[in-house]
Amino acid sequence: MSIAANLTKLKNEVSSSEVKLIAVSKTKPVADILEAYNAGQRIFGENQVQELVEKHEQLPQDIEWHLLGHLQTNKVKYIAPFISLIHSVDSLKLLKEIDKQGEKNKRVIDCLLQIYIADEETKFGLGFDEAIELLRSEEFLEMKHVRIVGVMGIATNTDQEKQIRDEFNELKVLFDGLKASFFRKTDSFREISMGMSSDYKVAIEEGSTMVRIGSTIFGKRVIPHWKNKDAADSTTPLSDNTDATLE
């Protein structure tokens, strides 16, 4: 099916649950993103800062860009002027830099706390206790140019649905606890970003408000790097979980 047809099918699946669909466009050429855009998609997610910045400059300005991948503090300044949501806040140090760059750009930057829920050492994220400690810190309470609007988590890459469901459930329970303890009177703290092409249906059942979908929209195929679509020697195979590795 075409990108437009894939999007229509997905939107029909998630519309009843009021879940936001983030099209994960990492490594995808501008033409593919435009096809999704022309089909009505407006929220796109990228992993790499350089790729995100370059695509932002080339594509329509009403696109809502999300940063999904691991973010280094020295790269925050490049996306601070325009980013809609950063999913991958995994340290107080990073949050302080986002706050600093938000002040420089005279805006408040929305963020999610990335929580470590997977049974894999390769995943980034805060432990449950670390997230609570961050939210209790004086440094966080003094920040004026960041807004924590929810949490993000990546489940273990496994075929065991029960394990995936349990991990998503743990994230939802943590979200509920943080909401009650720190954001009870804050309507903006409402997002749970969990679920990708391989597990988004389970994620929605467990309370996700945002799903990050790449291969189900753009297809599982071998393509060159997005900037070198015609260069045969730059072709890179994409796995079934093209949106699973956020790094």
Task: Kindly describe this structure.
The chain is an alpha/beta fold and about 250 residues long. The chain has one domain (about 5-235): Alanine racemase (TIM Barrel, Alpha-Beta Barrel), CATH 3.20.20.10. Helix content is about 40%, strand content about 20%. The chain has helices spanning about 5-15, 30-40, 50-60, 75-80, 90-105, 130-135, 140, 160-180, 200-205, 215-220; strands at about 20-25, 45, 65, 85-90, 110-115, 145-155, 190-195, 210-215, 225, 235. The protein has an 8-stranded parallel beta sheet. β6, α8 and β7 form a beta-alpha-beta unit. It is globular, with a radius of gyration of 17 Å.
The gist of it:
By secondary structure, this protein is an alpha/beta fold.
Keywords:
247 residues; alpha/beta; TIM Barrel; 8-stranded parallel sheet; two-stranded antiparallel sheet; 10 helices; 10 strands; 38% helix; 18% strand; globular
Q: What would CATH call the architecture? A: Alpha-Beta Barrel
Which percent band covers the strand fraction?
A: 15-25%
Mean pLDDT: 90
* CATH fold annotation: TIM Barrel
Rg: 17 Å
For the record, the CATH class is Alpha Beta
The helix/strand class is: alpha/beta
Q: Please, what is the oligomeric state?
A: single chain
As for the number of domains, it is: 1
* Spans of at least 5 consecutive residues with low confidence: 230-247
